[in-house]
Amino acid sequence: MPEVHHSALAEQFDDLPQQKEAATLGMWTFLATEVLFFGGLFLTYIIYRHTYSQAFAEASKHTIVLYGAINTAVLLTSSFSMALAVRAAQIGDTKSLVRNLLITIFFACCFLGIKGLEYHDDLQEHLWPGPHFNKGLPPQAQIFWFLYWAMTGLHALHVTVGLGLLSVITWMAAHGKFSAEYHNPVEISGLYWHFVDIVWIYLFPLLYLINRYS
Amino acid sequence: MNAPITSRGTYAIIWLSLLVLLLATYIIARFDLGALNVIAALTIAVLKMLLVILFFMHVRHSTRLTWIFVAAGFIWLAIMIDLTVSDYTTRGKIHWTEVSNSEPVSDSGGVQK
């Protein structure tokens, strides 16, 4: 291939496809560690839901399903615009790339904003575990709410990291750093963003839906 | 070796499918179906995840080596959950003489102190 001397090609790689493959594998390796990182919390949830099923059912009825559902739609839509951004990068359409990245950033901000409103309502209902925890709930319900804050909090942290990542990528894209031949950072950030979406795809039913009528 | 470029239409169909699945899981959760509620919610979550991984994350067009890397994380997660759950769900049911006087961990009553 004539592109062997492309300026974006690092010297340890033979060609750009090999470089791209290495970047993809590296990101998936990182995502595997993320799967197990969140997996520990999901496992904790499974064990305690099994152990204190009644308290968990009571506790989960206090999550606000509408916020959760809207935020799921917001994140899914941000994944859609991210996919379109990567597609724009693949065909070298810088204008569309920047536009779709900005749309993704917008939805990421929406997600955090809605989550903030929800957190506010949760706190009003005294759903923060501790001495002032909601008196109408059994004490074990605090375990559910501990997991709620830990899991959604860590997820929101990931969204925030993603926001930073997307901002850098958008800046790079606007300064013409990417082309149809080389856009690995866009692809890789996309993988990260979709992963954050997948975590929420599981958080939504587990925290908001499945104990509703048990 | 460059992956084929997916059309915007395909991405739009995936996005709409994801929203339909979200609506479905939201509606199903409003009905009391017993154990089916959990099964339905998690089945839909898995479907949504597969759509995102295969289409949005391009794994559909990725090399076999990538497939192995993708599967690895989930396989280890499955092992972790499977072994831990099989431990917790059988405690108190199998009485080894050494631990026969220890309290069973499972307390499905939940509400009592």
How would you explain this protein's 3D organization?
The complex is a heterodimer of chains A (214) and B (113). With 214 residues, chain A is mainly α. Chain A has helices at residues 16-51, 53-60, 65-90, 94-124, 141-174, 184-209. In chain A, helix 2 crosses helix 5, helix 3 packs antiparallel against helix 4 (94-124) and helix 4 runs antiparallel to helix 5 (141-174). Helices cover 62% and strands 0% of the residues of chain B. At the A-B interface, helix 1, helix 2, helix 3 and helix 6 of A face helix 1, helix 2 and helix 3 of B.
Approximate helicity band of chain B: 55-70%
Overall body shape of chain A: elongated
Measured between the Cα atoms of the first and last residue of chain A, the distance is 61 Å
Sketch the major β-sheet of chain A.
none
Name its key features:
heterodimer; A: 214 residues; B: 113 residues; mainly alpha; 0% strand; flat; disordered C terminus
Question: What is this entry, summarized?
Answer:
By secondary structure, chain A is an all-alpha fold.
List the helices and strands and how they pair.
The complex is a heterodimer of chains A (214) and B (113).
Chain A: H1 16-51, H2 53-60, H3 65-90, H4 94-124, H5 141-174, H6 184-209
Chain B: H1 8-28, H2 35-56, H3 64-90
